[in-house]
Write a structure and sequence with these properties.
Elements: E1 7-13, H1 17-31, E2 35-37, E3 46-51, H2 56-75, E4 80-85, H3 86-91, H4 95-98, E5 104-106, H5 114-124, E6 128-130, E7 154-158, E8 160-161, H6 172-176, E9 180-181, H7 184-196, E10 201-205, E11 213-214, E12 219-220, H8 221-229, E13 236-240, H9 249-257, E14 264-266, H10 274-280, H11 286-299, E15 304-311, H12 318-331, E16 335-340, H13 358-381, E17 387-395, E18 403-406, E19 412-415, H14 420-425, H15 428-437, E20 443-451, E21 456-460, H16 469-472
Parallel strand pairs: 1-2, 1-3, 3-4, 4-5, 5-6, 7-10, 10-13, 14-15, 15-16, 19-21
Antiparallel strand pairs: 8-9, 11-12, 17-18, 17-20, 18-19, 20-21
Helix pairs in contact: 12-13
The structure holds 5'-deoxyadenosine (5AD) and iron/sulfur cluster.
């Protein structure tokens, strides 16, 4: 399609990494139909909203964004609006009652249907919806791979859809369906294509990757990791999320065995109180969790462990919350995400009594986050003076020429290659050469000079002889 005919697309993503991945697939899928991305909804012919239903706040964000689109559509009636993701799956056609500006609704497993739905909406002038819970391989998006050289340093690859765990607070099994694994052959082909496009790090995504079982041979997750580890040109592998109850010996051993597997695991514990864990239907105790952490550290002494917490779950007492703080003190996580409990329609906990007063819950959340801030800052401070390997993500947002990347353990490191005044004095060749060394995807050894609550700062180790450049990556 000639450029002048091309239509413009804006994808608005709310929520988790799976939605980010879906957004990227949608962008590539629609690029094949002549849509080119623009920076905001104002100039878009088509707006795709990728929604999240995990907490009430996320859902509110969806409807407030749709309100903004309704106003834009009054000025430009030709604009199309498509809504996908968890809220689309949960609410279905009811979305149009609150947001009549929506032309197309597609569920979490109906992304492949999007182009057809857009055509049908355009031809008939009537809204379209597809909410089928496609089983098996059909649950996964099949977009064309990115162009050679067009990939970022790091990319997500969804390897599983759905969840079979039914934690009492969670809407995911209801909106993303039962567990299904992407076959290892398609996963590997997708990763090889990404590497050819320039990607150097992949993060494998699933609600509970420990339950992965793909292909005719029933390849399990440690085996998949070993096969991904063998992909030439790939430098780092990450994954998320693991359910503590299913953390296997095989996976723990993989951290010691696979050279590309980053020393980081996200292992959501949610609470440190056995009574709360039981009501959440998490199927492990505080002791089992701590034993798994100890076993992980036996296999991989420098492993970074991060976690998720819900505070104010129905019936959580002050004593239960103290148990959470004491677990945090015992484990000393490298980072945590924590949330106030939020009622989700359809999740069993929405019917539980003894709801916690929101003000008390927020106070607990603040205490938890303050506690973690101290731990993270102490852990970061212990890295000052050490040299770490950083995989460059790109220029840091604030002040060029500063770059940003992550360590093997997932800490964020910002670094400045040379004092800015020297960069200014360099001729173009030297500057280009220097910048090339810190291109996204390069690995750089950085001496850590300062530690903060959320990041580290340092300077790159002096380069080796010029001829070594290609090996330094
Ligand atoms: N309320 C608050 N937090 C929730 N999470 C999941 N469901 C809810 C809910 N109803 C959190 C959990 C999960 C993370 C992705 O979101 O901590 O691990
Ligand atoms: Fe939700 Fe629990 Fe499944 Fe995670 S494991 S997606 S919290 S039901």
């Amino acid at each position: 399609m000639p450029m002048t005919d091309s239509r413009t697309l804006y994808i608005h993503t709310i929520g988790c990494q799976m939605n980010v991945y879906d957004g990227e697939q949608i962008e590539r899928m629609l690029a094949g139909r002549g849509y080119r991305p623009v920076a905001g909804p104002e100039s878009a012919d088509l707006v795709v909203v990728n929604t999240c239903a995990i907490r009430e706040k996320a859902e509110q964000k969806v409807f407030s964004f749709l309100g903004r689109l309704a106003r834009l559509k009054r000025e430009r009636p030709g604009m199309m609006v498509a809504v996908g993701g968890c809220v689309a799956q949960q609410e279905g056609e009811k979305i149009r009652k609150r947001a009549p500006c929506v032309d197309v609704i597609f569920g979490t497993r109906s992304i492949n249907a999007l182009p057809g739905l857009l055509d049908a909406a355009e031809v008939t002038g009537r809204p379209q919806a597809e909410l089928a819970m496609s089983p098996g391989e059909a649950a996964f998006v099949t977009a064309r791979p990115p162009e050679a050289g067009a990939g970022p340093a790091s990319a997500f690859v969804t390897i599983m859809q759905g969840c079979d765990n039914f934690c009492a607070y969670c809407v995911v099994p209801r909106v993303r369906g039962r567990e299904v694994s992407k076959p290892p052959e398609s996963t590997l082909a997708e990763i090889e294509n990404l590497v050819a496009a320039g990607v150097r790090e992949v993060t494998l995504l699933g609600q509970n990757v420990n339950a992965y079982c793909g292909g005719a041979g029933g390849c399990d997750f440690p085996e998949l990791l070993a096969r991904v580890n063998a992909v030439e040109g790939l430098r780092r592998i990450r994954f998320t999320t693991s359910h503590p109850k299913d953390l296997s010996e095989g996976l723990m051993a993989a951290f010691g065995r696979l050279d590309k597997l980053c020393h980081h695991i996200h292992l959501p514990v949610q609470s440190g109180s056995d009574a709360v864990l039981a009501r959440m239907n998490r199927k492990y105790s505080r002791q089992i969790y701590m034993d798994r952490v100890a076993a992980l550290r036996d296999h991989c002494p420098d492993i970074a462990i991060t976690s998720d917490f819900i505070v104010g779950f129905p019936g959580e007492s002050e004593a239960d919350f103290e148990q959470t703080l004491s677990l945090m003190d015992a484990v000393r996580f490298d980072g945590v995400f924590a949330f106030n409990y939020s009622d989700r329609p359809g999740a069993p906990a929405a019917r539980f009594r003894n709801k916690v007063d929101p003000a008390a819950s927020s106070r607990r959340l603040e205490r938890l986050l303050n506690f973690q801030k101290t731990v993270t800052t102490e852990k970061h401070a212990a890295m000052v003076g050490k040299v770490v390997e950083v995989l460059v993500d790109g220029p840091a947002r604030k002040s060029a020429p500063q770059f940003t990347g992550r360590t093997f353990g997932n800490a964020i490191v910002n670094f400045t290659p040379e004092p800015a005044d020297r960069m200014d004095q360099m001729d173009l060749m030297d500057r280009t050469d220097l910048m090339d060394q810190f291109r996204p995807g390069r690995r750089v050894r950085v001496l850590i000079e300062a530690a903060f609550a959320h990041s580290l700062r340092g300077k790159p180790e002096p380069r080796e002889a010029k001829g070594e450049k290609s090996h330094a990556a």
